[in-house]
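Form 7-S
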Amino acid sequence: MYYDKLIFEISKPGRRAFSLPKSDFKNYKLSSNLLRANDAELPEVSELEVVRHYTNVSFKNFGVEKGFYPLGSCTMKYNPKINQDIANMSGFNLHPYQPLESLQGILEIYYETQKILSELSGLDTYTLNPYAGAHGELVGLMIVKKYHEDRNDFKRDTIIIPDSAHGTNPASAIVAGFKTIEVKSNEDGTVNIDSLKEMLNDQIAGIMLTNPNTIGMFEKDICEIAELIHDAGGLLYYDGANLNPILGVARPGDMGFDIMHVNLHKTFSTPHGGGGPGSGPIGVVKHLVKYLPSPIVKKVNNKYIIEDFNDTSIGQISHFYGNIGVVIKAYSYLLSVGKENMADIGKFSVLNANYIKESLKDDYLLPIKGLCKHEFVFDGLIDKSAHVTTLDVAKRLLDYDVHPPTIYFPLVFKESLMIEPTETESKDTLDDFIKIMKIVAEEARTNPELVKGAPYNTIVKRLDEAQAARHPIVKYRDLLQ
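Output:
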């Protein structure tokens, strides 16, 4: 059958999947410089073949609605479909150039979302303009830079970043024009205070942290860290990627953070992955509000307006008001959960993570003991005598129709295997995952070659990942060569 073939392989000359009405336009000859030299290489298939092809392709894909997705540090949780339906309502089919009088409804959603995020995070004012988390990081660091420049403190050109940080942190800092310096972690995964103190000088612009951190441990010394950074003249940036486990329980603003981004597409009900859509709102404390990118939605005399900080803002960083669809979904989610239930999100994500960790610590090496938050990291299998690696374990999980956890990150452990179950998974699902992880650990002990050769039940077997990354085949024509 053709369900394992590329759409080009089922193509036959003369077939078509469309029928267009007769055009009322007369023939018009295009300029030769606008014409292709050769016809486009497009498949010729029937409508039924198109539908079957893409339906079968979708079956081959894996997503959180198909099975458990324990991808650490990314909060791959289920998003209620009602929020998607609300964002698709015809009333939100707006144009940003409409008069503000006709946009009062959507501006109210923006304004109220900003207020809710402020209350949840403890920061004073938000902009919803950034398109993604990394975009939010860049915007936040641009604010850090402008803050120091406005004080004529141009020598502050360095951002401190923990050794366990998300990869976007140093990348965003470099793009914003900063240098980076790495602070080491303690054995429990938290920031080493003595190491931090040695780095503090008049060149430090700030520090980027997430709390709980990337290893899933809460930075218990965060108030001391904030005091040290502020006394040195720097600012604290909070990476909102790990906000999920502290919702309704703790607030970054109360910990001393000056700037943070929130991933609406991770934490507040937009499907995460596939390149978008995303949204990375930025929140700041009062003395940094004037630097927020334009425009800002404000409420004046019961009317919603758009305000530009022309003289003090870092400028405009997105088209109009950001990604409207994601904001609507987040607002709907926030209202449906409610203030009274928000803390359950963090508590259940923490409970689920610790349940898996404690159930598997006799089979997988747990380098950091104690209570984790939303995620945790194993350092591969406890029994390493057969040289079964974390990659081998991840590939074998595919045979059991389980998406593997994040592997080889963070870089603080050689065989990192990072698991984040999120709050939306049931105990039944967690028990199934634990059972499969134990089966793979037993296979590694008794039949290691079986695990090393996995996967066996997938459409393709183990790939040469180095070649796939360096020399990807992305064109059908190249595949034929």
